[in-house]
Amino acid sequence: MTSADTTLALSDLTTPGGGLDLGPGPARLLVGTLRLLAQEGPVTRERARGVVADLGVDRVQADELLEAWTERGEDGDIVGLGVTYNPTAHQMSVDGVRMWAWCAMDTLIFSFVLNQQIAVESQAPGSGGTVRLRVSPSGITDLDPVYAVISWPARDTDQVDMSSKAAIWGTFCHHSFFFRSRAEGDMWASGRDDVVMLEMDDGFDVARELATALLRYEPS
């Protein structure tokens, strides 16, 4: 996949009406719940209802979306929606509190959504090597190793499925990881034509575009 293909796919995904244009209600619900998870931890059903009321999202639609999109604890609390308290390969520290993300690109996107610095420690598939970094809306720092890359599945709108958490994982999350080198990433993605390896600066730029699309309906 060429850089031009990646640019075209990203533009298609983030344009109004594209795959990441969820509409005002769903987009604000996703962002609001994600922020609440990062700021307060697992979200009770009662707290989730309060968020829905505060956002003015249709209650029936919100209940359906949260049921489809979220991970739940044994007591029914929301424990994951992008940000998760179920351990994954992508550990984050936000204001000193440990949590995880569904995929590598999420960790970069969330710096914009949360508007703060995030410390990341992520395990690469295959080798199990660790990549560490700090990311904020102003950029990536403390990258270790300095030659690390990030994989991203370039998807057109017609390839995107946001109908459930499993669909989101299958569309994006199972294909986005940090790798300690391009050679390591290329070995993992060998034979695939739908995944691109991005230098970290380029990955940060992609994350900014994706975050902008998700935040489209947020108040100025």
TrEMBL record:
InterPro entries: MerB, MerB_lyase_sf
Superkingdom of this protein's organism: Bacteria
Organism: Phytoactinopolyspora halotolerans
Name of the protein in question: Alkylmercury lyase
Coiled coil (UniProt feature): none
GO MF annotation: an example: alkylmercury lyase activity
